[in-house]
Amino acid sequence: MRDKKRLWVEYETALTAGLPAEELFWKISWQLKHMLMVAKMTPTDKTDMKPYSIQKAKGFLRNYKPEELPRLSMNLIDIYHRARRGQSDFETALERFVLDL
Fold this sequence. Notes:
By secondary structure, the chain is mainly α. 71% of the residues lie in helices and 0% in strands. The chain is globular and about 45 Å long.
């Protein structure tokens, strides 16, 4: 929904509840992937996605410019790989991503 404050609060709540940052990363990347897929769909495209998921992604797409989604996806991929290489702290990098939305 591109509500930075709400996303950050939910992110912190999930971390406090014990969810690992990597699990939150996969949830964010999964939703972003769906948004990218729906953004490229035409009405005649066949998909295995459920209608609810498509409508949810379409609703989120209203808050983003089409050129922003690939950049966000690349930023998420970069966070993952930099953390795996030990170049950054995963939790901090993901929080920065959330706050930059």
